[in-house]
Amino acid sequence: MTRRELMLVLGGAITAATALRAQQKAMPVVGFLHSALPGPAAPSVAAFRQGLSETGYLEGQNVAIEYRWAAGRYDRLPALAADLVRRKVDVILAAGVAAALAAKDATSTIPIVFTSGDDPVAAGLVASLARPGGNLTGLSILTEELTPKRLELLSELVPQVDVFALLVNPNYPTADPMIRDMREAARTKGMQLHILKASTESEIDVAFATLVQLQAGALVVGTDPFFISRREQLVTLAARHAVPAIYELREFPAAGGLISYGLSLTAVYRQEGIYAGRILNGAKPADLPVQQPTTFELVVNLKAAKALGLTVPPSILARADEVIE
Fold first, then answer.
1. Nearest 5°: phi and psi at 15?
2. Which of 222, 230, 160 is nearest to 202 (CA)?
3. What mean pLDDT do residues 60-88 have?
4. What is the model's pLDDT at position 1?
C-alpha cells in the first residue's frame, strides 16, 4: 500500500469515527428521576417506554434514558436532579411532586415532565394548568383529593369500625395537606382518626405495631411513591395484623391487598412518555397543558376480604372496575 493509499484509508476511518461520534451525540437523552426503587417501578418504566415509542422513540435505538433512583430518600433528589442537569439531558421525567420540585430547582431551561399528587399551581410548578409557562408540564393526579374518598369507601366496607388510622410519609410534600383533609373528613363522619408516620422500611413495621396498640380497626395508606415501592411489605403487614386497609393503586390488591381506589399508574406513565416524546420532537412544555385524569379504578380483592372475615357489600362490588378472585 502506497503512502497516499494509507492516508486515504486513515482519513476515511477518522471521518467514519467522527460521524459515529456525531450520531451518538445526536441521540437524545431522557433523564428519569424517581423517588423510589427500580424493582417495584418496573411496570411504570415499561409504560413510560411505551409512551415514548408511540412518538417514535425506542430506548437504545434512537433515545437513551438515564435513570436516577432516590430509594425513598427524598433528600437525595436535589443531588440526583443536579447530576442529570450536568449531563445535559434533553428532557427530565420527574415522578412525584418531590422529584418535580428538585428538578425545577436544578434547571430553568431543560424541559421537565412531572407527575404531581398536589395542586401543581399551588406547589409552584406551573403558572396554570392550561398554560403552564416555563419549562415544566405534566400530569396532576389528584391523589390528595382522593384520600378522603378512600376513607369513605373503607368505612363502607367495615361499617362496624369507628377508629381508623392514616399512614403517611412525613417527608412527602403533600403529607400535611393530606392529614388536614383526612382529619376534616373523619370529623365530619364522627370517626376517630390516628395519624401514623413512616419514611423507612423499619418505621413501617413500627407504624403497624402502633396501629395495633391504638386498637385502630382499619387503615388508609396515604399517597407516596415510597409506599408504592414497599407495597409487598405493607400488604403483608396488613394481613399479618388482620387490618383492613385501602390503598391508592390497583398494584396493592394485585399484590394481595384488600381494596384500592385511584388512577391507573401505567396510564399516567404512558402519557408522560408521550409528553416526553413530543418535547423531543420539538414541542415546548409551556404549550402542553397539564393533564388531569378523568377515570379512576376501584379494585377489590375477594381473597383478601375472605381472609379478613369480611363480606364485601354489593354496593362496592357493583362499582368495582376489577374484582380479584
1. -60, -45
2. 230
3. 96
4. 53
How confident is the model over 47-52, as a mean pLDDT?
Answer: 97
Amino acid at 250: R
Compute the distance between CA of residue 198 and CA of residue 205 in angstroms, rounded to an integer: 9
pTM (2 d.p.): 0.82
The two beta strands, 259-262 and 297-301, are: antiparallel
| pLDDT above 60 (res 11) | no
Please report, as a single letter, which amino acid is at residue 116. Answer: S
Of 119 and 232, the one with more pLDDT: 232
pLDDT in tens, 188-213: 999 999 999 999 999 999 999 999 99
What spatial distance separates the first Cα and last Cα of the chain, rounded to whole Å?
76
- pLDDT average, residue stretch 282-287: 95
Contacts of 225 (CB under 8 A, 6+ apart): 34, 35, 36, 72, 95, 96, 98, 172
Cα–Cα distances in angstroms (integers) from residue 300 to residues 149, 189, 199, 274, 289, in the given order: 15, 23, 27, 30, 33
Q: What are phi and psi of 191, to 5 degrees?
A: -95, 155
Q: How far apart are CA 265 and CA 229, in angstroms?
A: 13
CA distances from 35 to 81, 98, 166, 201, 298 (A): 11, 8, 21, 15, 25
Whole-number Å distance between alpha carbons of 217 and 98: 31
Residue spans of alpha helices (H) in 170-307: 175-188, 201-213, 225-229, 231-240, 251-254, 265-280, 302-307
Please tell me the distance from the alpha carbon of residue 214 to that of residue 314, in angstroms, as a whole number: 30
